[in-house]
Give the backbone structure.
Amino acid sequence: GAGVSQSPSNKVTEKGKDVELRCDPISGHTALYWYRQSLGQGLEFLIYFQGNSAPDKSGLPSDRFSAERTGGSVSTLTIQRTQQEDSAVYLCASSLGVGSTYEQYFGPGTRLTVT
Amino acid sequence: GEDVEQSLFLSVREGDSSVINCTYTDSSSTYLYWYKQEPGAGLQLLTYIFSNMDMKQDQRLTVLLNKKDKHLSLRIADTQTGDSAIYFCAESIGRGSTLGRLYFGRGTQLTVWP
């Protein structure tokens, strides 16, 4: 595709429900990143994928958060038993490779509101 | 740690220069970046500078890096109302398992008055 796309753009869910957020990276980009943007914490790294594997999961805030990537393309971020503090904008980015020299292209984000 | 600090707000008049400042803590940063975020949009990379450079100029944008003080700045010349956005400073440490990770500041909201 032309850019990184994310769906849904907005999600409102009740506390305790599970949610799935989807990211479609730019075609051919082997690296995919998830970040979270919230008022209290700014922009935080969550996890990144190189191909289908995740070398760095240390940014996931709790074991309620998980992510997977299949076929080296689409990724889903799953949040189980959502809490109000999970409310944030979840941003996905992709790049041709992993490392400082590769520009990360960001999607428009999914705004998650937990009521 | 990898703390990146920015002031939260900056207001300027159209036509003036804007200077957005950033400090970081990790001296092993390899690249430093400036991203722009407009309302409802994702982050757009504006420019970046490699850690062994002092200055980089790209049209209206000038990036200055002071490695000794771990200070980065973005100067926007002839600021326009279309430059109103949130500007994020970010660093890449670029080693080991954190190779792909960017560390962001909280962002500076730039407001340009006509």
Notes: The two ends of chain A are 33 Å apart (CA to CA). The mean pLDDT of chain A is 92.
